[in-house]
Every structure is written in C-alpha cells, then in structure tokens.
Specification:
about 260 residues; alpha/beta; Arc Repressor Mutant, subunit A; Rossmann fold; 8-stranded mixed β-sheet
Length: about 260
C-alpha cells in the first residue's frame, strides 16, 4: 500500500530514487494515487532540500550510491560470490586463454584456476593477480594501465591498447549492477569502455553478478551485453529477476553452493 501523507510519500520517493536510480513523474503519480502536479511539487521540495536532482520528467537521487571500495565489497554476499566463481571456473578448459575482469566475484575465480593445465589468464584486477601469484603452472598477464584504487583494477588508454592486441577464449566480467535493458552498470565511463573491448575480443562471454545486483541502476555508465552472453548469478535471483535477461537472449545460470538451479 502506498504511504499516506505528503511527508511519508516524499520519503518514499527519495528511497525509490536511491534504489532504482531514475524516478518517473507519471509512474509516481500512479503509484501514489495523486496527480502529476502533486508529484512535481514533491520533487521541487525535495530538490530544494538537496535530496534529489531534477531531470526532465523525473528525478535522480544525489549521491544515492557512493561507490564502495573493493575491500568493502569483499564480504558482501561472500557465499554467493564464491559459488558463482566456482561454477565459472568450472567452464574453463585446459590450454585456454581467458580474461578475468577486476572485482571481487571475478577475482574469486583465481582460487579455483590454479590446477587447469596450460592455462593463460589475462587480467585487469589486482585481486586475480594476488590469487594466482603462487600458481606456477598458470601463465598470468596483466593488461596494465591506470589503477582505480576503489575497484583495484586497471583502466585507461594503456589498458585499452593492450586489449586491442589480444583475443580470448572466454571473458569473465564483473558489474556494479546489471540490467537486461542497459547492460553492465559502472561508476565511470572508462570502466564500461574497457568492458566493451573485453566483450569484443572474447569468443565466450560471462557476466558474474550476485542476485542483489540484478535490475539495479546505481550509476549512469553502461556497457550493453550482447545476445548469446551468459549471466551467472545465485539462487536468490527470482524468476522475475532473470526473465528480462532471457527475453534479451542472454543465458542465465543460477548457482547454489552445491550446484545449479
């Protein structure tokens, strides 16, 4: 039931803007059972209070999702991330050259790849480098570039130039959030540009994202996911969560600790 009273309604508008990113006037009008004019007055007041920033036809919350550091994210959804990482690592075949993106879920794959014969791992992430530092049988290459301290990954023109000279049997990409409509969401455009190159240079593409990241839009930089890619998530993802991806011709795998759902 929609909250009653203008104060409760405005608080809910801010909550919605923070959780979904873009809030539309017409949708809010229907949801709260008030006129569009009432919603516009709410938005004007919230803007004056510094709680949101207006856009044409809607509102965007200010600083709704400050980017977390990699260390802060490391323990979030730990079991789900490692279940996803184990399944993803099981797809890798001996002798392949694979690309591992930066991020905690993709980085966790490094723990499960040390015994794959003849494997070459190319990575943009310090987490993967650390995980494979003692894996003497794995050839490890770093794409280099400018280090983003928050994500512990390399980006920028040097990283892009390196990718343009390589191809991969499989690429495993992380995401701050992911939607079927827009693709992978990240805090900065240089991150999504790098992910686009990763997708273009790989024969098989996997996007690793636990259920809490599905359908969210915390930032405004995107890398579209092509049809034929595989989204690997965990069993907390509902049928409603994964249906938009399946409609977009993206294969969805939901992984539990002991297997696939």
């Amino acid at each position: 039931m929609p909250p009653r009273g203008s104060t409760a309604r405005r608080a809910e508008i801010v909550r919605l803007a923070r959780s979904t990113g873009l809030t539309n006037v017409e949708e809010l009008s229907v949801q709260f059972g008030v006129t569009a004019s009432t919603i516009r007055r709410d938005l004007s007041m919230l803007t004056d209070q510094g709680l949101i920033a207006r856009t044409y036809g809607g509102a965007i919350a200010l600083e709704r999702h400050p980017e977390s550091s990699l260390r802060q994210r490391a323990q979030q959804g730990f079991d789900a991330k490692h279940a996803i990482a184990r399944w993803a690592a099981s797809q890798v075949r001996p002798g392949e050259t694979i690309l591992l993106d930066a991020g905690t879920t993709v980085g966790a794959m490094g723990e499960y790849l040390g015994r794959v014969p003849g494997l070459t791992v190319v990575t943009s992430g310090l987490t993967t480098l650390e995980a494979l530092a003692d894996a003497n049988d794995v050839r490890v290459e770093c794409i280099g570039g400018t280090l983003r301290h928050l994500s512990q990954g390399f980006v920028g023109p040097i990283a892009e130039a390196t990718l343009e000279r390589l191809t991969f049997d499989r690429a495993f990409l992380g995401a701050d959030a992911v939607t079927a409509e827009f693709g992978i969401c990240e805090a900065e455009l240089e991150q999504t540009r790098l992910k686009e190159l990763m997708m273009q240079r790989s024969s098989e593409l996997y996007v690793l994202a636990h259920a809490d990241k599905l359908g969210r839009r915390p930032f405004h930089a995107w890398a579209p996911i092509p049809p034929g890619a595989t989204l690997v998530t965990d069993s907390a993802a509902t049928d409603d969560d994964v249906l938009p991806f399946e409609k977009a011709e993206i294969t969805v795998v939901r992984v539990e600790g002991g297997g696939i759902t």
